[in-house]
Design goal:
- This protein has 72 residues and is of the alpha+beta class.
- It is 38% helix and 26% strand.
- α1 runs antiparallel to α2.
């Protein structure tokens, strides 16, 4: 399952905080953050259960995210 989020992860420091969360849940090759995009896009490729964990942990860590529609 691929989920795409608009976020407030706007710099390398915040990206590193999120990396610690995401690497523990999904592994380093199953997510990325595009800091060059104006929406600071986070893409997560994981099971439905792991995606729910990602969302919960981002929320608990104080990060904003908004799911965007996934289009091929």
């Amino acid at each position: 399952m691929i989920k795409i989020y608009k976020t407030n992860i706007e710099n390398a420091r915040k990206k590193n905080r999120v990396a610690d969360i995401l690497n523990n849940i999904t592994g380093p090759k199953f997510w990325n953050i595009d800091l060059e995009d104006s929406d600071k896009i986070l893409r997560v490729d994981a099971t439905k259960q792991k995606v729910k964990q990602v969302e919960s942990l981002l929320r608990m860590a104080g990060f904003y995210y908004e799911e965007l529609p996934y289009q091929l």
